[in-house]
Design a protein that fits this description.
- By secondary structure, the protein is of the alpha+beta class.
- It has nine helices and nine strands.
- The chain has two domains: 1-78, no CATH class; 103-327, Alpha-Beta Plaits (2-Layer Sandwich).
- Strands 1-3-4-2-5-6-7 form a seven-stranded mixed beta sheet. The chain has a two-stranded antiparallel sheet with strand order 8-9.
- Helix 5 (144-173) crosses helix 6.
Length: 330
Amino acid sequence: GYSLEVLKNYPDLELYISLVDESEVEYSSKQEMLIRKRLIEKLDELKDMRKPKFKRLTYGIEEIGNDGQPIDISQTCKKKPEDFNKKLVRQYLLNKFEKRLIGIATVTANLQEYKKDENGKSYIGAISIDGNQMGKMVDKISNFKDLKDFSKVVDEIYFDAIIEALKEYKKRTKVDSLIITPVLQAGDDICLIVEAEYAIEIAAGVIKKIEVISKMDKYKNMLSKFTELDYLTACGGIAIVRYSYPFFEAVKIAENLCNRAKESVYLTNSSDKGYHRKSFIDWEIVQSQVNTGIAYEMYVKNQNIKEKYHIKPLCIDQFKPLEDGIFSYD
């Protein structure tokens, strides 16, 4: 079935399949959760048994495809189904955002649209946002139906948070236009490309909206079962780079900054025992091999941009400007 099709289309992919019979797990109200854990254990056992393999794929005289395999000339005219599927997924994501952002932002997959300055001083902001303690929440789910419902709710909250944050930002700042490139929006994982001068505020806005929307009554019943706070929190990282900077490298830097922001959740202590910081944001102006970060700072100096971003990471959900040595975003 599905596994066979995966192997057909991706022959070099190592696919591990584990199987658990219901008789292997003691019957209880948490049987499905126990089965899932046993599946993961068996999967780890299979991975531990893996032996290194090496085989010669080519003598280097053939044309090599993107998958590392020699190209069969007879197949070059045939359209690869995986390429077509990738385009479908990309187009689905673009259409999903376009429907909700009519009159708010231009949705594009072309980074050339971010070019504003012929002298190369055009910048983009790669935003990575990730939910906090999602693994712990999933571990509390005991059956597959609740897991499906929980995943659907999280996905809905995060997507709505992006849309509402963009709407609010445009209304508040009265900017003429916004450009956005959605890279990933799945569950509690978000990756977006926006114009650099708006990136930090938009990212902070999304994180705030995640908390606000998750507190709505229609989500409380579901979230209260699996979360300690009855609402969701997240952290974010932003990499500010030239629009021509290697795309995936920018995304990787943003993800690392997001992870650094998440570490702050556990590294900071609160003097108030009833309060614990949950949401942080970090960013970096990425320097190229020959240029410094000064160019971006000069680029935004005379624009309507906040110039108070100095001590990082900043706490999104802290109300006092400075507390316990931590600076608030606001």
